[in-house]
Amino acid sequence: MILRVTFNKKNYLRYIGHLDLMRVFHRSFNRADIPIKYSEGFNPHPKFSIAHPLSLGIESEEEYMDVDLEYIPAEEFVEKMNSVLPRDIQIIKAVYLEKEESIASLIAWAFYEINFDISEDRTKEEAEDIINTWLSKEEIMITKLKKKGKKKIERQENIKNLIGNLILKEINDNNIIIETLLKSGDNGNLKPINLMEALNRDTTLNIDMDSIAIKRLGLYAEKDKNIYKPL
Amino acid sequence: MINQKKLDRVLKKVERPARYIGMEENSVTKDLEKVKVKFAFSFPDIYDVGMSHLGLHILYNLINEEENLLCERVFAPWTDMEAEMRHEDLPLFTLESKEEVKNFDFLGFTLQYEMSYTNILNILDLSKIPLLSKDRTDEYPFVIAGGPCAYNPEPIADFIDFFVIGEGEEVTLEILKLYKEHKEGQWDREEFLKSVAQIQGVYVPKFYDVIYNEDGTIKERISLIEGIPSTIDKRMIKDLDSMFSPEKMIVPFIETVHDRVSMEIFRGCTHGCRFCQAGMIYRPIREKSVDKIVELADKLVKNTGYENISLSSLSSCDYSELYILITKLMEKFEEKKVGVSLPSLRLDSFSIDILKEIEKVRKSGLTFAPEAGSQRLRDVINKGITEEDLINTVNYVFKEGWSTIKLYFMVGLPTETDEDVMGIKDLAYKVKDMFFDLPKDERKGNLKVTASASCFVPKPFTPFQWVGQESMDEFYRKIYLVKNSIKDNKVTFNYHDPKLSYLEAIIARGDRRISKLILRAWEKGCKFDGWSEYFKYDTWIETLKELNIDGDFYALRNRSLEENLPWDFINPGVSKDYLMREYKRSLEEQTTPDCRQQCRGCGIKGCTMTGGGDN
Ligand code: SF4
User: Fold this and answer.
1) Residues from chain B contacting residue A38 (CB–CB below 8 Å)
2) What is the pTM of this model?
3) ipTM of the complex
4) Distance (Å, rounded) from C-alpha B492 to C-alpha B245?
């Protein structure tokens, strides 16, 4: 049976990568004695997949994972797992799926909170003005590096349509918090750091790039122009 | 606690930031304000290497089980991290509390190999602790060190406040408890050092001085204060079953060198290979009982979630009830898909039944260590392995479907001739031929034979401690002799850098004057010397010249049996007389049987081996 699970990943644990996270879960399944299913073959793997892996250094309030296991009550799963998982990775919810559409193919949008410092104090109006003017441009270009064999090829991409929205949430002297919904999945994908690079390049905000702290607040699926949570 | 904002800036920029965050399963965080004694344990290499060291897991849990004591970890930051830390002026911190190392009571290093000594200085520097013991005042931690290389503490005597010689389980707690008493009483750094020097196994270098002869050899050692021991007896645990064994291990987030449950099944070794320091200093052999091991394995697997157990010891196939142990472990873990592996197989006591048991779950690569290419030379070094052993084993493993085999050798062993060296090639080719001599349908996989040669480094407390190392030219000549003769793409020949081995030989048998060399080399940028991409041979040589230290005096010189050796004041249990006898026997190509067959009276006390003996 497939259990769809949401979990978070916070504080210092944002510094562990995707493969490390897979290992944490694998060992936690072992420790919690979860009847997880294994792949066949010489080197059996536990069957679970995490949708849309986070980049290193990004915190998250809500990640998704599908787990293939023998039935145990979902509440029991949550309880057992949370007792063995690190404090900063905890399961929030777990529900058995009725129809099995893989989580990876469902995700279309990601919602982020981004916190950063700028070099001079700005009022909220000033900052909003700068951001909105930027957002209203026809084209917002980023440069993507693509590896082709050994060569790296630069490619320009217009990301305007990949930005669902972007609002300034808070400003304190020279510290800004924004929230933004970005395309995230097989039909277009924008990394928050690329957004920030473009914002810094095109505007006079003067962002301290080393100060950027990104948190993923949620992941969303889309059907007929409706955005909804996959669980 | 260090500035977290700075730490975040830094972590975002470095490779594998998880090396520096702690928070792993089974790591321990205590309230720094409440514990009485704070110990920072350091493995002077990066996290990935240090976390694979079993001793760390033992000491860490041992100390943290005591209510009043605390142990946290600190490793050498990798060069990218170091640069960022220096840039942000972020001092070195422990993984658990992110507290400055400087604010601990002790900073303890484990000395696993000589080429990590510059990393010790780098760690002190990043922690803003004075490098030299004599410059450390009351507010600084005691910098202490233990582990196998502490058996010759002299090359780093200037940096370390005191050493712990031998097995650390009991003595560490004695030291920390003594410290707690002193701290609660009238605190005085010097007084504490004086009283800690009375604990068996503790060596405080500053209480001694060394007088040299004109030719640079040691005339005598003198005690500078009254009432301190003139020889330091090693510490040894008598019974492993009742000794502390951790039931937990920290489970790293990132992949480390050994990513599995590591279980010690016995200490010591009965073979008496004459080049092997571990085989001498860890005597006598002491086994953990099967029941205890199975019980611990069960707890460790439950507490870590690991899917592999590796049984560790100096030569795992010597465990007296190995077959019973393996069968019990397999019974217990087969269903859970937990694999069991034995990392140190010897050819002679190799048991085919055991291999059959293990391979039920997973096939691991096979490595054998004949050490020398010819039987004559294997007799000289007392490696009790014959060619027949090798052939029988390899024949079996090929039939069972293995096709990747590694063979370990050394070049530059005492009395070695070109003929012996060429034996490396012959043996590798024999193994290859055996594969192709099998009928075609019995061969499985693609044959790959790898022969690796390291350069022999004579070590203190071995029968070869008097022997001069081979010169670099000779090493290169011999290596190329073998390398150029191997012309088969199924056989690969690797060799270790003779340059590194030369420096290792200088430091391993160094005296107090070598501290200056290490300090100066570090000042000139040497660190991570064990990592080939960072090893700066030219800088080391330049430093030797600058300080007027003759490297050959330490590395290449044959010592007379009468000479006072820098480490003679340490008593490893094995007598110098025994080492001399073994040295002489080696020159006569005489082998010495395994302790299990016959006791040779090596001088160790408390040995229960019943081989009977002629001494
Ligand atoms: S006392 Fe005898 S049996 Fe024991 S380690 Fe020494 S030589 Fe071996």
Assistant:
1) 337
2) 0.93
3) 0.90
4) 40
